[in-house]
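From the pipeline queue, job 12 of 40. The input is one protein chain; the requested action is below.

Action: predict structure.
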Amino acid sequence: MIDKKYKFEKDEISLFRSKDMQEIKKDIETIFKENQSILPKNKDAKILIKPNLNNDLNALTGNSIDLRIIVSVLESLQKRGYKNIILADGPNCGVNHIGIDVFSRLCLDKIAEIYKVKLKNLNKEEGKFVELTTGKAKLAGICLDSDFIINIPKMKTHVEAKMTLSCKNYMGAFIGTQKRCMHDNLPANIVRLAEIIKTDLIIVDGLIAMEGRGPGDGTPKKVGIILSGHNTFIMDALVSKLMGLDYKEIPFLKIAIEKGHISKEDLKLIENTEIIAKFKPGEKTFFDRILLNNTFINIRFSKIFEKFFNKGFIPWILFKLGVKQDKYVLEERNIKRFFEKEGITEKEKSKIKSCLKTYCPMEINKLGDKKCINCMYCYQVLPYLIKYEGDLGSFKMQLERFGKYVRE
């Protein structure tokens, strides 16, 4: 159900408050009903869904896109008869460099199989050179030749860009280490990239966001909202205010304003908008300023030094200093099934049912259901009531880092 509408000169943005999976599905369906007139007439049109799949940290950590939104979007599109749907992103340079399959760890491969849609890693697609403000960089061609693009960003703060949303979500469209070209002048290139890629529909995941040292080392923040719109610059400026951030302090938004992407009248409306949830900003540390630059990153990824930065104590040191936002674990998880712990009360069983109703993207109502894709959402919320058979693998670290926040 629409909670609020923001009417701008160049866009109209809808805000939804969504508590559980059922409400999320209804709200996403409302978005598509609102935008029926702009959807492709041809049911074979190439529809690209570009979520934020920065790394292997799942949605309840506040890092990646929520599967509940992905499933709802796919169902709304397929309900309208669209057949050529592509889920695509290019995870960050670190996970790509060491070969971690983010799509598998986030269960996007299972979602794609269930809904019979294509899944593409943009790091491995054929590229086309585009002109940034600092030179050329190779972008996945599919982001330039799709008929309709749905941009699904995650609401997060960011230590370098201050915030990451619609504009910066397209950074994943660059092939492999070509993403680093953006960092030659990150604010100006974020704006340039949003000018290059045509956005048809934006659906913002503000269900569980991230504050502090985003995009991957911050703190999960439950906000419970979804937004829809069409203009990346206006959406980002509005959401910055909803997060309690000052758009005048966000470098790429300042450039977007200077270039005329956001009018003075729209800025007045944004300034008068109420804050929904005050976010802690993501400030750069001393080590960030020294080591988060392309010279150091190129050394990390070089063939001579990569083995030192991928294994052993050096990755841990960089992680502890905040230079690396994640200490990637190569061991895969191998969960066979989930079931209730012995001796729990009826009240606790009711809590499990409520958790499944709220968080399960596949809408199962009982642990052990064959439709379970092992996304880990229910176990993250209620590890003290749910048992599993198998091995947590890389997911153990996520529980240690973010578990207390998710349970709260």
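Job complete. The longest helix spans residues 21-34.
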